[in-house]
Structures are given as C-alpha cells and as structure tokens.
Amino acid sequence: MSAREWLDKDFYAELGVSSDASADEIKKSYRKLARENHPDANPGNAQAEAKFKAVSEAYGVLSDPDKRKQYDEARRLFGSGGFGGGGQGGFGGFGGQGGFDIGDLFGGGQGGAGGLGDLFGGLFGGRRPGASTANRPKRGADVETEVRIDFTEAVRGATVPLRLSSPATCQTCRGSGAKPGTRPRTCGTCAGSGLVTRNQGAFAFSEPCPDCRGRGQLIDDPCPDCAGEGVSTRSRTLTVRIPAGVSDGQRIRLAGQGEPGRQGAAAGDLYVVVHVNPHRVFGRSGDDLTITVPTTFPELALGTTLTVPTLDGKVTLKVPAGTSSGRTFRVRGKGVGKKDGSSGDLLVTLQVAVPSKLDGKAAEALADYAKATADHDPRQDLNELLGR
C-alpha cells in the first residue's frame, strides 16, 4: 500500500476508538471487532470479510508504538486524507499556495519526494532516491488470534491444532498479483518510480502516479483469486505447541506466521492468546497447584493419613495430631511444569467440614466432649482484649 492510500485511511475510525485511546482500549476494540467479523463466523459474508481485513490492517499500525507515532505525525502534518490533492493539507494545497516542490520542503531534490520518504521512512519503509516507497519490500502485519485449552493442558503443555482465516500470500499468483502466465509491467507514466512531477509556473511538485497509484507497476491481467493484490484470505491449520506452565491470557508468539510481506519482505508474526478453562478441583498460584481437602475434627485432633488427588494420580499425606483447620501442607513436584523441566508444588489446605445435622448418638458424644474440654478456652486471647 502506498503512502497516499495509507494516510487516506482513518485507522482510529476503523477500530471505533478516539485518537488518544490507550493501547489496551485499541486491543480490546480490535478483539471485539475481529471476533464479530471473522470469516469463520460469517461464511460467505463479503462485507464482514472486508471489515475483518480493515480492522486487522488498522490494528497492525496502531498496536505498534513506533508506527502509531509516525502515523499520528503524518496525519497532523497533512490531515486525514491529506495526500488527496487540492486540499489545504495536501500536495495540491502546498502547490496552490506558492507552487513549490513538496520534496524541497523536506529536503528532497527536484521532482522528488526523497525528503518526504525519509520523514516517513519508519512508517512506509525507507526509500532509495528515484524509487517509490510503494515498491519497497514491506514486512507483513502481525496477526492475533485466540485458543482455549483445558487446565491440565496448561499445566503440562499440549500440542493443539489452530484453524485460521487470515490474509496470506495468494497461492494462485504466488504474490505477484498477476494472472498465472502473465507478469506485471513497469508503469510507463512514472517509469516505475511511482511518482510523477507536475509543473506549476516556475515550480514543480511530485505526487503519486495516478495510473499505477504509486505502485510503479501495472497489472493488465489481475489474478482472479486475489484481484491483483497478491494477498488473499484463506483458511489454514497450524499445529501450535503450548508450553507447560502457560497462564490464562498469556500471548504466544509464532514468528513468521502473520500476514505475508510485500515485494519479498518477511511475513509478520502470529500472536496466540491462550485462555485456560478452570478446574473443578484444583486452583493455581504461580507455579504451584492448590487444593482444599475437607477433613473431620477427629482427623485433625488425633492425626491421620489422607489420600490426596494430584494431576498425576494420588499421594498420601501424613497429618500430625493437633493440626489446626486451615493449615497448608506442601507436596513437592506435583505442581505446574516449568521451562527448565522441573515442576512446582501442590499446596494442600486442610479444612474442617462441619456436619449440617447430627443424629442422637453423635450429638450426645459431642456434648460429652464439650464437657470434657470445658476448661479449654480457644478464645482466651480475645476475651482478655475484651476485659473479661
């Protein structure tokens, strides 16, 4: 995409956020719109597919702090759509107010936008003198998707298939944009530079070539599958390795699996946001698993040996006499897998389960116990503070 085409777009409007939106607000809006307009959720809906491409393109710029800064600066200098010509903020506006070469304004030479290309070097890619920025190889945009896994898979790691519908290099034309058997030709109007120089009195200024739209090439027979773009939306399945110990909301980067680059440039990256289903028994605290085990009062008072479940099976836990309710025991190596191959621990918290009803014999036995331990006051410290 040329500089003119890029600046003519309002990426903030595409995502439905203000120009001063935070990075989190931009990400939240993108995820919402991407889910709503994803091709898998809207089969055969061309409008939804176009919207999905648009929000992905907008997020690719606004999610990158450097690109966003340069995009904002370009919009400030030229205004939204400032490359449109004839407007006060565009090339035409500069020419109409004095007729000088816009390239000279930013240090470019006669008929060139070299200085302008340097100004936007980071946003549109650097350019060599005499060449259009649109012809320069451009890294593909990053793509983000989501996957949901079970609690056990997050703890131990897993390999999961991931189905994507995203822009990719057109397999029909191999990215050239031309119908198989043909090839793009150099634009005769701009001689492949993507720029044309227009004279106005004693002055001249450059603008993107109107015939090739700044691309420097013309495609006489566009590829039927990608309409000459060299990129098409297609479904593909990737096998993603989820590392052991991944946490809910964590992003996994897959290098080179994003949108394809232009003119032979490297592809962007794919970021997979992992969502973990909760477990009905186990919880998690960092690299440790947690579990609460109900016990009876006699088990804690007299001591016992408990059988405790783990994700690998069962372990026995020796509970000493006089253990208080709420005490936590540590079982080594039965927690979350770590990068170094080791594992965290299992934290077992014992909690007295109080019966909701007691039969006659149990109530009588408990009453006898209360009389036998009447001299023991578990609230002695509190009573002293209350002055009793």
From TrEMBL:
Keywords: Chaperone, Cytoplasm, DNA replication, Metal-binding, Repeat, Stress response, Zinc, Zinc-finger. This is Chaperone protein DnaJ. CXXCXGXG motif repeats lie at residues 170-177, 187-194, 209-216, 223-230. A zinc finger (CR-type) spans 157-235. It is found in: Cytoplasm. Binds 2 Zn(2+) ions per monomer. Zn(2+) 1 binds at C170, C173, C223, C226.
